[in-house]
Amino acid sequence: STSTIINNNVREGRFMYYSSEYQAGDVVDPFTPIVVYFAIHANLLPDLTGMNTVQILTELAKIDVVVEIQTRTTNSVAEGLFVDYGNNLDIGDILDDGDEVIVYIASPLVTVNRGLMISKYLEGSLYNRSIELYNTSEETIDLSLYHLSLYIDGSSTVDYTIDLTGLLAPDETFTISYASSDSSILEQSDLLSASLLFNGNDAITLNYYNDAIVDIIGTIGWGLFYLDDQTLVRKPSIIAPNTTFSIGEWDSYTKDYIELFGSHPVTYPTTFTFDASFLALPFTEPGGMIEVDYDSIYDGDTAYFTPGFLGENRVRFIGIDAPEMGSGLLAIQARDYARNRLSSATTIYLQHEPTSGNVDTYGRYLALIWVDGALLNYEMVLNGYSQNNYQDSTMALVFNGIPLSRWMTNAENYAKSHNLGVWA
């Protein structure tokens, strides 16, 4: 009798063998029952163990199926070799003609080295752009394993990539700058690139060689201008990268503040005083200062000084708006705080705020009030006696590398977080 056996490696219908107890050349008695096996073809899934993509496709070309190669992350099988079938299929399954077969080959499971992070960001004047990286680990890092990806103008896909090179020792920094930045920035840079041009509504990621995101500044797909005209420095408390951007991890300084680059971490200033160069300017000029004596106070944001700032010429503290007298206890507390600071001061200066001028629409003088080197306007916001109303997009006044507008914003944030005064 005859029977068939599936074998796709020989021509269909070809003799394969006799039943197991007989071999070619055996002598048998007449009428001895013998089974003769012939090859037939079928869509039998073969064992592909140890095969690479080319070998897999060659083997599966022998059957009538549609093949799709996919990868599976694993370190138990060498990269590029067969791992398993998909579609709930197994070795030895018989399929119909034209069935789809998914074949998984091994892709190595990469352990991303997260000892590298973005430590500084500069979006400055004209073409001044820089990114600083910092090695937080205890081992030297091969930068060629990393690259920067730029998502420009709120893009959700990568527009440019910048490959990195070199070795970065522990606790060292590496600065990448736009190739047309000012010379002061170029001198601080380790790598120049014509692709590092962003304008504050972008996202920049630090990627490992397998494109895994290690760190990010900005939000992918978000086109709002909120990172322009400033220098951002990672807070000293942040010692690891983050794949989700959080502005709370960064301290903000004035734009073009390249002096901070080259070392990390950086301690954020908590106090400031006036720029003595403004003492040479008269109060009538933007930024000019005049020394005065305290006379009396009206409320938490208006006071009288001599000489020349009495009666209708009283001085309104610019950038704040303390509660009006008669509105409650907080108004009294705000007035008393300002009075105590002014009455006990050794030296008081009024400064002409460059952006808003020194006279308001009611004819009152406007000024920044410096009390023994400390800015009273700032202190009133810091202690919750007023909201912050100070704005200056030109950054005309910068103290310790931080625009006054940022100092005032930080003061309000502090008062809010501590539930002080108007934020209680």
Taking the sheet with the most strands, its summary is: 6 strands, mixed
Number of strands: 28
- Radius of gyration using CA atoms only: 37 Å
The proportion of residues in beta strands is 25-35%
Class by SSE composition: mainly beta
Give an overview of the whole structure.
- The protein is mostly beta strands.
- 11% of the residues lie in helices and 32% in strands.
- The protein has 4 domains: 2-41, no CATH class; 45-107, Trypsin Inhibitor V, Chain A, CATH 3.30.10; 116-260, Lamin Tail domain (Immunoglobulin-like, Sandwich), CATH 2.60.40; 276-423, OB fold (Dihydrolipoamide Acetyltransferase, E2P), CATH 2.40.50.90.
- The protein has helices at residues 53-60, 183-186, 329-343, 376-382, 404-417, and strands at 2-6, 15-18, 36-40, 43-44, 65-73, 82-85, 94-95, 99-107, 116-123, 129-135, 141-142, 146-151, 160-163, 167-168, 173-178, 191-193, 203-208, 213-217, 230-234, 250-253, 289-299, 302-306, 315-317, 348-351, 365-371, 374-375, 398-399, 402-403.
- It has a 6-stranded mixed β-sheet with strand order 16-15-10-9-19-20, with no helix packed on it.
- β9 (116-123) and β10 (129-135) form a beta hairpin.
- α4 packs parallel to α5.
Short description:
Strand 27 and strand 28 (402-403) form a beta hairpin. This protein has helices at residues 53-60, 183-186, 329-343, 376-382, 404-417, and strands at 2-6, 15-18, 36-40, 43-44, 65-73, 82-85, 94-95, 99-107, 116-123, 129-135, 141-142, 146-151, 160-163, 167-168, 173-178, 191-193, 203-208, 213-217, 230-234, 250-253, 289-299, 302-306, 315-317, 348-351, 365-371, 374-375, 398-399, 402-403. It has 5 helices and 28 strands.
